[in-house]
Specification:
By secondary structure, this protein is mainly alpha-helical. 73% of the residues lie in helices and 0% in strands. The longest helix has 23 residues. The chain is elongated and about 45 Å long.
């Protein structure tokens, strides 16, 4: 990779981490379980005592907040992270 690409990716990852940390707790917990740890929505719902639909909606809203927070970075990346696809 070119140094410029690596710098863009590093900047994005730092911004991404900050944006995830700034998510409201009810979004960050489901985002962590389902997106980062790969747990199915149903399993996360059981762990958290939430209906599967609530987990799905919170994931959708967390992704929307992250996308909005990181939108200006995404155009600079060669390939957006999987959680945005």
């Amino acid at each position: 990779k070119a140094a410029a690409e690596e710098l863009v990716e590093q900047e994005f990852m730092e911004a991404f981490q900050k944006a995830v940390e700034e998510l409201p707790a009810h979004y960050s917990v489901v985002f962590d379980l389902c997106v980062r740890k790969g747990q199915p929505y149903q399993e996360a719902g059981r762990k958290l005592g939430l209906p599967t639909g609530t987990v799905a909606i919170r994931i959708m809203r967390a992704r929307k907040k992250l996308f909005t927070a990181l939108e200006h970075h995404l155009g600079r990346l060669r390939r957006p992270p999987a959680c945005f696809q």
